[in-house]
Amino acid sequence: MDTTRKFLDKDNFAKHCGIELMDVSPGRATASMRLADRHLNGVAVCHGGAIFSLADFAFAAASNSHGTIAVAINASISFLKAAREGTLTAVAEEVAINPKLASYRINVTDEEGDIVAIFQGMVYRKKDKIEL
């Protein structure tokens, strides 16, 4: 998993957003993002793009955790609750995997454990190994 962590450490956009990788294991990952003013939209709630980015990062961590490059081919998100402050956490879990495709479900929750968003993503699994 050190390779996955080092690989994801190169994600400059996630760093810019304040997203942190908390845990990664084969087919699973957890990431968090402490909300700040920069994450808020015009109605003072967390911007959907910020929530999507957090979920997408956890998705990337889980899907690349097998040591081969996995790239997104589809992703969708449903927003269930507004978030205004605190820390959001995204937990990605592998739902199905085969040599070419894999599917993941990511729940984004707030500090109370309430689901803020549900993200579903599919990756194409390349044969290329992750190289640092």
Question: Could you give a short description of this structure?
Answer:
The protein has 132 residues and is of the alpha+beta class. It has helices at residues 2-8, 12-17, 48-64; strands spanning 19-25, 28-34, 68-79, 87-97, 101-109, 115-129. It has a 6-stranded antiparallel sheet.
Account of the protein in words:
- This protein has three helices and six strands.
- It has a single domain, classed as Hotdog Thioesterase (Thiol Ester Dehydrase, Chain A, Roll).
- A hairpin with a 2-residue loop joins strand 1 and strand 2.
- The mean pLDDT is 96.
- The two termini are 13 Å apart.
- It is an alpha+beta fold and 132 residues long.
- Strands 1-2-4-5-6-3 form a six-stranded antiparallel sheet.
Could you say what the CATH architecture is?
Roll
Rg measurement, Å: 14 Å
Total DSSP helices: 3
The secondary-structure element order is HHEEHEEEE
In the sheet with the most strands, the strands line up as: 1-2-4-5-6-3
SSE blueprint:
Layout: H1 2-8, H2 12-17, E1 19-25, E2 28-34, H3 48-64, E3 68-79, E4 87-97, E5 101-109, E6 115-129
Antiparallel strand pairs: 1-2, 2-4, 3-6, 4-5, 5-6
